[in-house]
Amino acid sequence: MKATGSSTHPSEHLKPNQMSFEDGEAYIARKDIINVFTDGSKTEYGVGVAFCVLTNDIWTYQWSAKLNDNNTVFQAELTALHEAVIYASHLPNHNTSKIHVDNRASIMASSNSKSTNETARKIFKILLTNPRIKVSWVKAHAGNIGNERA
Questions:
Q1: Where is the RNase H type-1 domain (predicted)?
Q2: Were 91 and a residue from 79, 95, 98, 99 both cysteine, which residue would form a disulfide, CB within 3.0 to 4.6 Å?
C-alpha cells in the first residue's frame, strides 16, 4: 500500500517544551536560565532588529542591526529570533537559554520544519539540534524589562 500525504519523521520534531505560546515572563527571575529578548520593528525611520541577553540580573550582551526598508515586521522579527538562536547555540552546553519573542507568527513559523520561510526553517534546524534552547512568547509593550530593552 502506498502512503499518501506528507508527514514528518519523529526526529524532525522539536521537544514538547521547546516552543511555548504561554507568557514566558515567569522565567525571567530564574537564575539558572539565560534570558534572551528579541524584537523587530518597522517605523518611518526604517526596519530594525535587536536582541539582548540577561544573565543573573545583568545585561551581558546586546546586538542590533538595520535591515533594508523593504523588509516587513515579520521578516524583522524572524531575523532577530534567528540571530538570538545562533547566539544561544554558541553558549556552553550546560546553559539553558530562554528566548522571549513578542511575535507569535515568528514562533509558529519557526516551529514548523516545512515552513515556506527560509529563515524560519534555519531557526527550526538550530533548535532541533539544541534542545536546551527554549522559545516562548512574551506580551509586547507590557512593561517587560527585557522586551522593552530589545
A1: 30-150
A2: 95
